[in-house]
Amino acid sequence: MSAFDLASFIANNKEDEAQKIIHNAMKEFDNIAISFSGAEDVILIDMAVKAKKDIKVFSLDTGRLHAETYRFIEQVRKHYKINIDILSPDREALENFTREKGLFSFFEDGHKECCGIRKVQPLKRKLATLDAWITGQRKDQSPGTRNVLAFAEKDSAFSTDKKDLFKFNPLANWSSEDVWNYIKMFDVPYNELHLKGFTSIGCEPCTRPILPNQHEREGRWWWEESEHKECGLHIGNLIPTAQQ
């Protein structure tokens, strides 16, 4: 693959054309994969399948997901007739962590250590094998913590001195309403937890339904302050704070 010209890609694509961004990103990179979280990221798969049948998809299995989420991941696999690479935490690291701190330490000292082992490290291992990845990040998901989100960028969190990693966020400017309009219009599968009041869906102990007029991320890590409601997967897109 020749060197990727990020500036040219941005100049030749429009931020409101998600499907075109996905299609062109897959043309630029052979070694590219979609990050599927078991929630609205299924839109990325739907768009990608329409452009290319042999797409690469991966999902993080933290070991603490809802039963509904596991069923949904399997539903998506069968619906689109695709393979989904299921990533698991390092066994030794997880066993040491739970032996020392138990299964619910995040309620006492925050979720970052647990997320680091169950999410960030497996993701880091996977991204080390890729040249680019596609995410379902949206600006409106965490307006208090996420910075201006580009639809194409160099991944500042997971690039290394030896290798640049590029990241595409085709839904950056989509609203939650846009997401659900697409799901309904194209009859896209979705997690049944959305019918039970869940909006942003993560691990079972750390996710609950939201109340009327609450922001969608209020159901995640509800015992922590709003500026802490990130797990570290997209740390390069966060607004800098004194703590960071």
From TrEMBL:
| EC number of the protein | 1.8.4.10
MF-aspect GO terms: phosphoadenylyl-sulfate reductase (thioredoxin) activity
In this chain the Phosphoadenosine phosphosulphate reductase domain maps to 31-209
Using the UniProt record, give the first listed, main subcellular location. cytoplasm
What the entry lists under Gene3D superfamilies is as follows:
HUPs
Query: Briefly, what is this protein's role?
Result: Catalyzes the formation of sulfite from adenosine 5'-phosphosulfate (APS) using thioredoxin as an electron donor.
The protein, known as: Adenosine 5'-phosphosulfate reductase
Metabolic or biological pathway, per its Swiss-Prot or TrEMBL entry: Sulfur metabolism; hydrogen sulfide biosynthesis; sulfite from sulfate
| Catalyzed reactions per annotation | [thioredoxin]-disulfide + sulfite + AMP + 2 H(+) = adenosine 5'-phosphosulfate + [thioredoxin]-dithiol
Pfam families named among the record's database cross-references? PAPS_reduct
Active-site positions, per UniProt?
Answer: 231
Give the species this sequence originates from: Marinomonas rhodophyticola
Show the SUPFAM superfamilies listed in the entry.
Answer: Adenine nucleotide alpha hydrolases-like (SSF52402)
Tell where it localizes.
Answer: Cytoplasm
Matching entries from InterPro entries are given as: APS_reductase, PAPS/APS_Rdtase, PAPS_reduct_dom, Rossmann-like_a/b/a_fold
Cofactor binding summary note: Binds 1 [4Fe-4S] cluster per subunit.
The protein's required cofactors: [4Fe-4S] cluster
Key words of the record? Cytoplasm, Iron, Iron-sulfur, Metal-binding, Oxidoreductase
Provide the residue positions that the database annotates as binding [4Fe-4S] cluster: 114-115, 203, 206
Could you say which protein family the record assigns here?
Belongs to the PAPS reductase family. CysH subfamily.
Which stretch is the leader sequence? none
The residues that cross the membrane are none
* Top EC group: oxidoreductase
